[in-house]
Amino acid sequence: MKKIQRPLRLIGIMVIATGAMFLMQLMVLGQDQAAMQEVEVAPAAVTGQFAGVQEAVQVVRQTAHFTTTAVNFTDLPNATTEVIIPAGHIDLLIIRFFAESVCSGGGRDYCKVQILVDGVEADPAVGTEFAFDSTNEGADGTGSWEAHAMERSRCVVAGDQERLVTVKVQWATSNPATTFRLDDWSLSVERSHDCG
Description:
- The protein has 196 residues and is mostly beta strands.
- It is 0% helix and 60% strand.
- It has no helices and 13 strands.
- The strands form 3 sheets. Strands 4, 5, 7, 11 and 13 form a 5-stranded antiparallel sheet that branches.
């Protein structure tokens, strides 16, 4: 890979599929010369969807705090809502969850959150890999309050009749010695038409 010493300006990006790998070529222009840099990008590392007009927004929130030490996902109390997908629609749901979080106890452990749409993890679906918060290798205590957030999405098909979709938040820890506390949370769901 060629190194450029001068200040560069990005003037174009070209993505070329080459079998199992993708090659991204970045064209940059310096003061008096152009250079091409190649960067390998793993396949399927990035996914995406698009939609048209936003048609509805729902928000659920709570100021009471709850704690868990469960290592298997359970429902966060009251963190659920239902969304109506009109008949004939294929809609994109964008789901955001914000909370005051404390993840304490144990050692090098973390606290997990997932968002389900009709019982299926929304995208990106990573199972237990997503750390909403961590114990900071055991350094965080019960007074280590922090604001944390996540966003997920999912295309939902209604068919010939309107469909009632349930969105819920689940939480867990990576170690039963870890305590996960959530407070002052907000769950919002945006519904946009023509997901593709």
